[in-house]
Design a protein that fits this description.
The chain has 15 helices and no strands. With 326 residues, the protein is mainly alpha-helical. The protein has two domains: 61 residues, no CATH class; 216 residues, MetI-like (MetI-like fold, Orthogonal Bundle), CATH 1.10.3720.10. The longest helix is centred in the N-terminal third of the chain and has 33 residues.
């Protein structure tokens, strides 16, 4: 048969191919490490020399001392100005050091300007504003951050838009609102509520608190919800304990804002027995010697400086808290 195929009786072995010349192996490319040199006025090599270190520390010391004097000198001038006599304050050129240290001028300022009454009023106003600020702003920020209502973004946007309005523009509408409270018709002039309510309505504090609450892990909230905790319980037991830095910042800012405010208390607290310390000192400044007036300003500044030095660590921790989510 012509199409029949003949199979061999034993298997055919095919010889392996002869090895050719070895292939040239390509060298591995090492990852390129880019080294960027940041140039400055003084090179790192120069800083290692004695001459370079001398120049560096000289410039650094000069800059630090200059800026420190620029900030501290007004405080020094205020404290020493109270120790000078009116004639010494009026002389030209002024003297940098008082000729005599008469600390009795501070007691005179305390008695003549009735600083005890004004400081008590200011403490009441600042304390009430602080409590209402924490109550309303913390609740609003928690609702916008964790509860997420339907129109939450729109409400937050309207709150932030109030920060773009100059305070002097809303001064008259706010005064008319306090004089005749809508719906209720109450007159809040010469009452602490005229200070407390506007201080609590602060869109910046709500935004600051919300940004911090956003950085709190969602897993903590969900674990508490699984355990059956209510939103109020979650706020009190979970959110507030981890929010101490930002609560400290908001507390300090709210107290300082009320303490240093002048125009708004001047409008809503015309009664002399209910004035704040800033308004009280300004109202009696024309009747007092200049050194007594400066001494009263020193006394009025002491509480805010003490608050800053005590809570400065909380201020720095709270301003950077919540900036990065981890």
């Amino acid at each position: 048969m012509p199409n029949a195929t003949v199979r061999p009786s034993h298997p055919v072995t095919v010889p392996p191919p002869e090895p050719g010349p070895p292939k040239a192996r390509r060298p591995r490319r090492r990852p390129r490490t880019e080294t960027r040199e940041f140039r400055s006025l003084v090179s790192p090599h120069t800083l290692t020399t004695p001459h370079g270190r001398l120049i560096y520390w000289t410039v650094l010391t000069f800059v630090v001392v200059t800026f420190t004097l620029a900030f501290v000198f007004p405080l020094y001038w205020m404290v020493t100005g109270a120790l000078k006599s009116p004639e010494e304050l009026a002389q030209i050129p002024p003297s940098f050091f008082p000729s005599s240290l008469d600390v009795g001028v501070y007691a005179e300022a305390w008695d003549q300007l009735d600083l005890g009454l004004f400081l008590t009023n200011t403490v009441v106003y600042a304390g009430g504003a602080w409590l209402l600020t924490l109550a309303f702003d913390v609740s609003a920020a928690y609702a916008l951050s964790k509860l997420r209502p339907v129109l939450g973004k729109a409400v937050l946007g309207m709150m932030l838009s109030t920060l773009m309005i100059p305070p002097m523009v809303i001064l008259l509408p706010a005064y008319l609102t306090v004089k005749d409270l809508p719906i209720f018709g109450w007159d809040l002039l010469n009452t602490p509520w005229a200070i407390w309510l506007p201080a609590a309505a602060n869109g910046f504090f709500v935004f600051l608190l919300k940004r911090f609450f956003d950085s709190i892990p969602r897993e903590l909230i969900e674990a508490a919800q699984i355990d059956g905790a209510s939103p109020g319980r979650i706020l009190w037991s979970i959110v507030l304990p981890v929010s101490r830095p930002i609560l400290g910042v908001v507390s300090i800012l709210s107290v300082v804002n009320v303490w240093k405010d002048f125009v708004w208390p001047l409008l809503v607290l015309p009664d002399g027995e209910k004035m704040t310390v800033s308004v009280g000192i300004a109202s009696l400044s024309a009747q007092m010697p200049q050194n007594v007036l400066i001494a009263s300003l020193v006394i009025a500044s002491i509480p805010t400086m003490v608050v800053f030095f005590v809570f400065q660590r909380s201020i720095m921790a709270g301003l950077t808290a919540g900036s990065l989510k981890g």
